[in-house]
Amino acid sequence: MKNLKFVILPLIMLMAGCVTQKINVRALLDAGPKDQIYTAYNIFYSDPQDVPTINYRLAGKLLPAGTPIELLDTGYCTNDREDIVSFKVISTQRVYNMTHQKRWRAKDDDVHSFIKRLFTTQAFEKRTEGFSEDIIKEIKTGMIVKGMTKEQVIIALGYPATHRTQSLDNSTWMYWKDPDVCFRAIFKNGKISDILE
User: Fold this and answer.
1) CA separation (Å) from 72 to 22, 25, 152?
2) pTM recorded for the entire structure
3) How many C-beta atoms surround the C-beta of residue 102 within 10 A?
4) Quick one: which of 28, 56, 64, 185 has the most CB atoms within 10 Å?
């Protein structure tokens, strides 16, 4: 049963016109062989086998920032021009497949840059060191509030989709509640000054 993951994902990728591409994630993250890898931000999903990278806020379930994971495979699909990043949560052994679709990303946003944003070697406690208890509580529930820094927003909601927010230097970041409803975080002097829905 343990080896089933090594059969199922390649089979799905082959049927979809995909090829498995081995990427040295540890090298991308400057991680040593014994360093733990974590989710860098909260991941919202409804089906762990099909997690969109757009990170819909109202998807139903939340995989917390700082969850220890093990990377399984990365594939590139030629049919939709999408990358599939698969990882397993160590505590539950549940496998997640994130699809990084071309339509939700800027032209220069490849699978390598996506992986660098998606994972980290810093535990949640280290990443949130110095944050107030109130801010940490909001982050853990996947919420943003006025006064949050850009780093805090990223941990709470993930990175904004690069096809709409092409630079983190932008004063407006666009996110989605669901496929039809978006909202914007407006920054002034590096902190949220307004949230427009």
Assistant:
1) 9, 10, 28
2) 0.85
3) 14
4) 185
